[in-house]
Known about the structure:
This protein is of the alpha+beta class. The chain is built from 11 helices and 27 strands. It has helices at about 35, 50-55, 80-85, 130, 265-280, 295-305, 325-330, 350-355, 410-415, 430-435, 455-465, and strands at about 25-30, 60-65, 70-75, 100-105, 110-120, 125, 135-140, 145-155, 160-165, 185-190, 200-210, 220-225, 235-240, 245-255, 260-265, 290-295, 315-320, 340, 345, 365-370, 375-380, 405, 420-425, 440-445, 450, 470-475, 485-490. Strands 10-11-12-15-14-13 form a 6-stranded antiparallel barrel. Strands 2-5-6-9-8-7 form a 6-stranded antiparallel beta barrel. Strand 18 (about 340) and strand 19 (about 345) form a beta hairpin. The longest helix has 14 residues, at about 265-280. The chain is globular, with a radius of gyration of 26 Å. The two termini are about 40 Å apart. The relative contact order is 0.12.
Amino acid sequence: xxxxxxxxxxxxxxxxxxxxxxxxxxxxxxxxxxxxxxxxxxxxxxxxxxxxxxxxxxxxxxxxxxxxxxxxxxxxxxxxxxxxxxxxxxxxxxxxxxxxxxxxxxxxxxxxxxxxxxxxxxxxxxxxxxxxxxxxxxxxxxxxxxxxxxxxxxxxxxxxxxxxxxxxxxxxxxxxxxxxxxxxxxxxxxxxxxxxxxxxxxxxxxxxxxxxxxxxxxxxxxxxxxxxxxxxxxxxxxxxxxxxxxxxxxxxxxxxxxxxxxxxxxxxxxxxxxxxxxxxxxxxxxxxxxxxxxxxxxxxxxxxxxxxxxxxxxxxxxxxxxxxxxxxxxxxxxxxxxxxxxxxxxxxxxxxxxxxxxxxxxxxxxxxxxxxxxxxxxxxxxxxxxxxxxxxxxxxxxxxxxxxxxxxxxxxxxxxxxxxxxxxxxxxxxxxxxxxxxxxxxxxxxxxxxxxxxxxxxxxxxxxxxxxxxxxxxxxxxxxxxxxxxxxxxxx
Length: 492
């Protein structure tokens, strides 16, 4: 769990993230609309229909990380070394001197539980990234107790959305509503599996929209007082018609258990993430190219420093910094400006801008209205990806490197006095050859991350290929003992 600061600060993120207030803990639940307005004033709302529609579409997800043998460098105990080998007969020069040793450890088998929502009859299920992150096995249990193994189609850590699939047909897919249409005060149901209590429904209202919590991701949460606890993550937040309006994501609490509010990712964001994962394998994110937050938070922060400021409004997005070569810089936006509207729609806080940006892709155009020295300006900008262009960003596979790898042998470890690495056993071309890496080179570190398995290298390549700087800094050692490093450019 993460502690959030109790005072307000403005956000520092590229048109995607904002920091906000609240001395609370973030608790992920896997660890371990119109129908309402039609009800007569003062009369209770019947949510039984919504429950009957939604419950069959919500599943239980068991995430398993299998036990593994790992080798780690550990600090030697000089006293233990002395008693085990008082004269150093076994040839370790560090014995009795408190050096380091390579030791093997068996990691325990770990399991976590969460929820998911069936979005298509042919087996696609949406859940949270943190529910399936690191899983070796996923077991999905339907409402009728049928069990299936699931595979991960794709995940997006930034929005905390994951798409998984089971091999089944004729499933009860949930109806999906437009989360933009919901209203504060509207009755909602949270459906999931808290504490492994399957098929659980809790009721509440929409407490706020476009809420940001400062967690360094794409945030425009639906806030609700429907009880959300451990195990609810990835479950459904539905309206009074039983239609999906959000994916339950987290709760904020001083105790780690529900005390008032939960937060769900709106379907407006979910739909874009799922579509991109299916089409591209990764989310196509567009950026205006600013760092900032709510203008009110900025004013409050400056007042705490004894400053009196007037930006011409108390509603909108304060621009703290303009990113070099970004869309905002090209449009003439300056630090200190306040964005007040997008495509003619009024923007009052950062979460509203985040929600709009989450549905855009590089190359899209936006008309921004902003205040510069309290004077209204309107400009049209072309959005860019994190790499500063309008190209489609795709995750690179190991094939792009044009090489074949294998973990080093025990003999290589002993000869080179190293504990891990990947040997390049074949180079056919591709990015490795262009960088000058040849057969026999042993890769140890890529982008400051130790690499011990081919799977670890694959994850680093995927992450780097969609980052702002799509390069690999590869460090390693030749069979002769000579150390070297190379820069591998992943761009076409």
